[in-house]
Design goal:
By secondary structure, this protein is mostly helical. The chain contains five helices and no strands. Bound molecules: zinc ion.
């Protein structure tokens, strides 16, 4: 087993998922290779630090749930009755703008909608 092969197997070795032949080869390689042994010890230390982290307190979890609920409330979607209302308001706004342009054009004695470039 060379160093590249050994380093690919370090995680499996740490978690005990290697097959017999690979595990035997790695167990023979590690004591003879300070670089791979150092890599393995660093990986082992990092994995153990992650295991030592305590779970979040009940207060932290409650705060997180509240923050998520606030975020979801802010990002809520339009309900079924709000969508036609929004479309209606938008259509009415366009209609009023066209009417105003028409009134201005007629008031100036030009053809209807000439102010908008329409003939
Ligand atoms: Zn090595």
């Amino acid at each position: 087993m060379n160093c590249d092969e050994a380093r690919c197997e370090l995680t499996g070795f740490h978690f005990g998922t290697l097959t017999g032949a690979t595990r035997d080869a790695l167990e023979a390689h590690l004591p003879a290779c300070p670089a791979c042994l150092g890599e393995y010890l660093a990986l082992k230390r990092a994995a153990e630090c992650v295991d030592d982290v305590p779970p979040p307190s009940e207060l932290s979890r409650a705060r997180l749930r509240r923050a998520m609920a606030d975020e979801l409330r802010r990002a809520r979607r339009w309900s079924w009755w709000e969508r036609p209302l929004v479309v209606g308001v938008a259509a009415a706004s366009v209609w009023l703008a066209l009417g105003a342009a028409h009134a201005v054009a007629v008031g100036e004695g030009r053809a209807p909608f000439a102010a908008l470039g329409m003939r």
